[in-house]
Amino acid sequence: MNDGFATLPKPPYYAVIFSSRRNSQDEEGYGATAERMIELVQRQSGFLGAESTRGADGFGITVACFDSEASILAWRQNAEHTAARERGRSDWYDHFELRIAKIERAYGWDREGRAKRSEE
Amino acid sequence: MNDGFATLPKPPYYAVIFSSRRNSQDEEGYGATAERMIELVQRQSGFLGAESTRGADGFGITVACFDSEASILAWRQNAEHTAARERGRSDWYDHFELRIAKIERAYGWDREGRAKRSEE
Question: Is the pTM here over 0.90, yes or no?
Answer without folding.
Answer: yes
